Amino acid sequence: MQDTERLSLKTKIGYALGDFGGSIPFQSVTLFIVFYFTDVFGLSAAAAGLIFAIAKLWNAVCDPAIGSFSDRLQTRWGQKRPFLLFGAVPFGISFFLLVAAPQIEAKFAYALVTFLLFSTAYSIVSVPYGAITASISSSPEERSSLTAYRMAFAILAILFVGGATRPIVDAFDTPQEGFRYVGLLYGVLAAVFTIVTFATTYERSRVTIVEHLGFIERLRIVKSNVPFLLLNGAIIVHLAAITVVATIVNYYFKYNLRSEALTPLAFVSLFVAAALTLPLWLRLEKKIGRKSTFNAGMALLSLMLVPLLLIENPNPYVVIAVMIVAGAGMSTIYVFPWSMVPSTIDYSEWKTGQRHEGLFYGFFYFSFKAAAALGGLLAGLGLDLAGYSASAGESGTLGDGTLTGIRILLTALPIALMMAGIAFVHFYPIDEAMERQFRNS
């Protein structure tokens, strides 16, 4: 693990385009699939929720298994890149099938099967894709830089999906036809950009073939890696907090601020600020290290929620200004966890003599999905405890207790979660000196 050669701009952009392509279908599912299932395809909300629950259980087994399998693969293209080459087209097709809206009777069965196919196809591409970060370079600085490019393009994908999907759907005579075209377009983009990443990246670090591992053995290996567990804990609570904010901000602007029309501007401000401030955090990393920079960003995000907790009815444009600064802090979660995972893999190899890139990335990807599910669950339960109901919301007014509950959900709950995440990262033991020891071993 001695190689610290700088990565070329072509390699960084080529790698980042893979996340742009992969994030287009993934973010489409995140933002629109519930609406599609209920209002376009004709499923009940309960059926849609059951499909999501089954998919999460499947991911708990599927993601680590794919990662572990990639650790045992040996081809002329490397260990991870073949998954991009051979998984790209099935990935694109699976998204098209998911939103194709066929006129059939067995709607639940079709939605469940296609959602599981999409989840599996996404994992087949995304888990090895993420693991390439650990094998393309052994330099922590280059890994952070590569991840910054990747996450900048991922944020662009979020903005693209958020801004383009509904206009495309609305351009057709029916939403079924519109979503079918979205599935075709986004599926093609996902496949093409995934293949571009295969063609422009490589795996440099030495290949270590590991034996087949059962599920219990995988858990044992992961449990023995304390830095990975701490990082995993941090990402779960941080992403759950951000999911709560992203969910509740819709209700906050509609009912507390009575400015529903400004909600899209708030989201755009948040993510544009996150993208634009990525280079600033990378500069700070060189001075104070990744761990401290990550915590500084999340502390800034937490701090920006405090005035929204204390002020009952702020000016909506002041809230948007707060969201811009909060987005700058949120930027760190798109870079540093992903660039810190390779160090936990290096730690495991240094400690055990075996390298399990795919296995750890498989668990990490599942944690991302579980965190989003946890955040959604907390937001839903919180709204219920606050006394919110859709029928009451239809009148456009809510009681004072419910409005206070929405404000607490937007601020106090995420702050508490992020404080826990900051504590996890504080105890994360890998520093720059230890990373140099890994590279020299």
Automatic annotation (TrEMBL):
GO terms for molecular function: symporter activity. Pfam families: MFS_2. Residues 11-433 form the Major facilitator superfamily (MFS) profile domain. It comes from the Bacteria. The keyword Transmembrane helix applies. InterPro entries: MFS_2, MFS_dom, MFS_trans_sf, Na/Gal_symport. One of its GO terms (biological process) is carbohydrate transport. Keywords: Membrane, Transmembrane, Transmembrane helix. GO terms for cellular component: plasma membrane. The chain crosses the membrane at residues 12-37, 43-62, 83-102, 108-136, 148-169, 181-202, 228-253, 265-282, 294-311, 317-338, 359-383, 403-428. PROSITE patterns: MFS. The keyword Metal-binding does not apply. Belongs to the sodium:galactoside symporter (TC 2.A.2) family. This is Sugar (Glycoside-Pentoside-Hexuronide) transporter. It comes from Leptonema illini DSM 21528.
